[in-house]
Amino acid sequence: MTRMTTQETAHSAPGPARADAAIRCSDLVRIFTADGVEVQALQGLTLSVDSGELVAIVGASGSGKSTLLGILSGLDKPTAGSVSVAGRDLLSLSSRERVDYRRRTVGFVWQQTSRNLLGYLTARENLALAMSLARSPDRERRSADLLDLLEVGHCADRTPSEMSGGEQQRVAIAVGLANEPRVLLADEPTGELDEATSAEVLEAMRGVNRELGVTTLIVTHDPTVSDHVARTVQIRDGRTATEVLRRAGVTAEGDEHMIAEEYAVLDRVGRLQLPQEYLTSLGMRERVRLALETDHVGVWPHGHHEKEAADDDR
């Protein structure tokens, strides 16, 4: 069982995007056109990630998570909406400013090793190259510190082919941190690893988040990532659908355990997505009946009350 400290899990319930958040997306829409057919990859997505937070974005293939990552990385632009990262408005950046943004503000960890590391360079040399592009000072000391932090100092003079898959990905995380980014973006960082190695890499990312305080966003379809983060955001049909927050709790016997609470995400016009399993279990479709109670809103399948009334008459 993955352990989390109380500090790591102390998050408030999800709310509207904050102006001072490290990542702030509001009503993001992204429409792609192919062969005259429009596809809405994002349909009004809103997301806020606080500075220093470690968040997993999960969703099935086609849910919009990769499109979101492309926008946050500065490689793509939304069709509508607003987005800022570390205080930089991504919609207003010029081409030159976008290059600077990718070099200095964000770091990347990709699923494919070839996108993270040059095969003919050692780990130390890959870090040195990334640091030279960002014009980072004291490169030798910082390279050694990052490799030690990721527990791959022994790989400093090895090329990727001389490393295991887990070592390659740890070195890739170090390269992603080489430019001292404000935000680290990871796209399926464990997609090509076995379960045990995946857990080790995710724990390494959590350690980096804790030690350096870098805001970290992990985009994945792997639900086991949730075991290593305090906050998981699920994207469905191009919108944030639900969030799961985890915190440490103590039983009556004094044993520590994890408490997971699921929230539906409410956008600024009052829309929310109910989990699919709820809809299926209750046979909800097309319309539902709402009732405002003293401290909550009741939601029933259409026809529920009519059925109850008929049962009472019998």
Structural summary, described in words:
- The protein is α/β, with parallel strands linked by helices and 314 residues long.
- The chain is built from 9 helices and 13 strands.
- A 7-stranded mixed sheet has the order 6-7-8-3-9-10-11. A 4-stranded antiparallel sheet has the order 2-1-4-5, covered by helices on one side. The protein has a two-stranded antiparallel sheet with strand order 12-13.
- The protein is globular and about 70 Å long.
User: Looking across the biggest beta sheet, what order are the strands in?
Assistant: 6-7-8-3-9-10-11
What is the percent of helical residues? 25-40%
Topology pattern, helix = H, strand = E? EEEHEEHEHHHHEHEEEEHEEH
Q: How many beta-strand runs?
A: 13
Output the structural class. alpha/beta
Overall radius of gyration: 22 Å
Q: Sheet with the most strands?
A: 7 strands, mixed
Range of strand content: 25-35%
Mean pLDDT, to the nearest integer, reads: 85
What count of helical segments does DSSP give?
9
- Shape assignment: globular
Distance between the termini: 52 Å
Low-confidence stretches: 1-18
Describe, in short, the structure shown.
The protein has helices spanning 65-72, 95-104, 113-116, 123-134, 139-149, 165-176, 195-212, 276-282, 304-313; strands spanning 23-34, 37-49, 54-58, 80-85, 88-89, 106-109, 183-187, 215-220, 231-236, 239-250, 256-264, 288-292, 297-301. By secondary structure, the chain is α/β, with parallel strands linked by helices. The longest helix has 18 residues, at 195-212.
